[in-house]
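Risk register update: the risk of archive-format incompatibility is retired. Evidence:
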Amino acid sequence: MPTHVTVSISMTEEAPSSAAPETTAVRLVSCLPASWTVVPVAMTTRSATLSLTTPDDTRAPAVLETLDTALSAPAFTGWIRG
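Archived output:
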C-alpha cells in the first residue's frame, strides 16, 4: 500500500521578508522524488500543509528525512518542518 503523510512547513524569523508559503511549497515539491504525489491541504501567511503519497516501498520516516534534507538547502533558509 502507498504511504500517506501530511506535513506542515512553517516560516521562522530567519525567513526573508519576501518568503511566501505558496512559493516555498512549489519549490519544495520540485525537490521531492517525481514518483511522489503532493496535494496542498492548507496555506496560511506563515505555513503550508501538504499531503504526500509515496510508493509502496517508502515509509514515513524516509519521507520526513527527505523533506528535512530538502529544507536544509540554502534556498529554504527560514523554513522548518512542523
